[in-house]
Amino acid sequence: MNTWTLINYFDVWGNKIDGYEINNQCVEADDIVITDSASDDDIINYLQIAGYLNTNETSLFEVYCDGDFIEICVRETGMPLYSLRRNVA
Q1: Euclidean distance between CA atoms 45 and 56, whole angstroms
Q2: Which residues, 6+ apart, have CB-to-CB distance to 20 below 8 Å?
């Protein structure tokens, strides 16, 4: 079973042109289960159902995955919102 920790980037500074800096973050949950076969839409849908993303419009978000690290950003601006980090047993 793959469990992940959800990190909320609750204080992000910057813009699309100059880039973003995560000024502060916190752990929202540390026991999220994501299968290896989950698609980007599956991950976004889960976060919407769990109440972390406050819209049902999946196309507003982008998912970047690098193995044990997933980042969810606003598609239009590239602003990072959350990351998921695989828990190591």
Answers
A1: 8
A2: 12, 13, 14, 78, 79, 80
Domain of 71? 3-86
Question: Are 86 and 4 spatial neighbours (Cβ–Cβ below 8 Å)?
Answer: yes
Three-state DSSP string of the chain: CCEEEEEEEEEEEEECCCEEEEEEEEEEEEEEECCCCCCHHHHHHHHHHCCCCCCCCHHHEEEEECCCEEEEEECCCCCEEEEEEECCC
Instruction: Give residue 1's pLDDT band: very low, low, confident or very high (50, 70, 90).
Output: low
pLDDT tens profile 26-69: 999 999 999 889 999 999 999 999 999 988 788 999 999 998 99
The count of domains in the chain is: 1
